[in-house]
Amino acid sequence: MTHAISQCFDRLRSQHAPALIPFITAGDPDLETTAKALQTLDRQGADIIELGVPYSDPLADGPTIQAAATRALERGTNLDSVLEMLGRVSPNLKAPVILFTYYNPILYRGIDRFLDEIVTAGASGLVVPDLPLEEAQCILEPAAARGIEVVLLVAPTSSTERIEAIAKQSQGFIYLVSVTGVTGARTQVATRVPDLIQQIRNVTDKPIGVGFGISQPDHARQVVNWGADAVIVGSAIVRRLAEEGVESIGQFCQGLKEAMS
Prior knowledge:
Shape: globular
Enzyme class: lyase
Number of strands: 8
EC number: 4.2.1.20
Family: Belongs to the TrpA family.
Helix content: 40-55%
Structural class: alpha/beta
Strand order of the largest sheet: 1-2-3-4-5-6-7-8
Strand content: 5-15%
Keywords: Amino-acid biosynthesis, Aromatic amino acid biosynthesis, Lyase, Tryptophan biosynthesis
Order of helices and strands: HEHEHHEHHEHEHEHEHEHH
Mean pLDDT: 92
Active site: 50 (proton acceptor), 61 (proton acceptor)
Distance between the termini: 31 Å
Largest sheet: 8 strands, parallel, barrel
């Protein structure tokens, strides 16, 4: 049973290096481009890659990722086509892939069938932003049994008790949402992040990844200096991929990685 995300963090920790986790939306502008983007990010320094499955009602996503999901859905992208593409590409990737999807498509398919299919496609982890801790057990155990690590999110508004409960259950790492609200590139990283990292550190030794609002190499460096084990970058990459293409996100990924080391 491989737990590829945990293994990746173990390896990086032994090198005293943080993880870079870029996010892209599957199917924007099309799945062939997504396949190339995954391979490019993998080559240019991504340690883990988050792959968003487009969804019609994306509560946690800001305008950039919502627009990407809408374009992907209009082109007919669905879970089946995303998994088919990932199944072709994943054998060539060093970086583990985390699928980012809302709970409804999982429920619709059935948890066991969904998990079996994403394992077959080569996914290593899962983020389900609208799945509250109280209901996460139904997916945490069957996922763990298949080597899929379910990463839970900590919001900036979470109480100490809640942070402790989430940290205990989260697999792979803890995803710290740096701002209240939706994803999106911002001009600066929320100043509460160092305190939040420390709060999580006080209750767990699991790795902490910080996401939402990180859009520049300087932000990535700052978050690492504050003590994060991973930097998650979404909207800034999704926008570049849509406007400038695959080569541009490769260069951007390289720049982020250099800033973090």
